[in-house]
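debug: dumping io for the single-chain case to check the tokenizer round-trip. Nothing else runs in this session.
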Amino acid sequence: MTHTTSNPKIHEGRNLKRFREMLGIKQDFLAFELGEEWNQQKISLLEQKEKIDADILEQVSAILKIPAEAIRNFDEEKAINIITNTYHDHANDNSFNQGTIYLNPIEKIIQLHEEKIALYEQMLKEKDEMMERLEKLLAR
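debug: decoded output
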């Protein structure tokens, strides 16, 4: 099952590669997630295709956790135009508020420390849960 794209400049394979790379996902991992019949070389070939089969595109988009339409419709030229037209160099601004100013850095340090402790406690809880699951699996 294939589909057509109205904009001939859009290269779905290249878009797939860009999204995969932005997400820090290797071709090998994507191949593994797609199944046994896939390997790194097949992913490389897929990324060279201008049009990708709709079924495969849906599977890949689910693995990458992005909408298939993002891969189908991403137009690099339009994205560059948007970035170019919305970026402003604030180096010469006379505006005072150019970022967050912490008047009391000790409070920020305490907040970060508390967040770190909460994260550590959450990790310990998850480790304990994982250990319980492993013990149940080993007991079978």
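debug: round-trip ok. DSSP finds seven helices and no strands in the chain.
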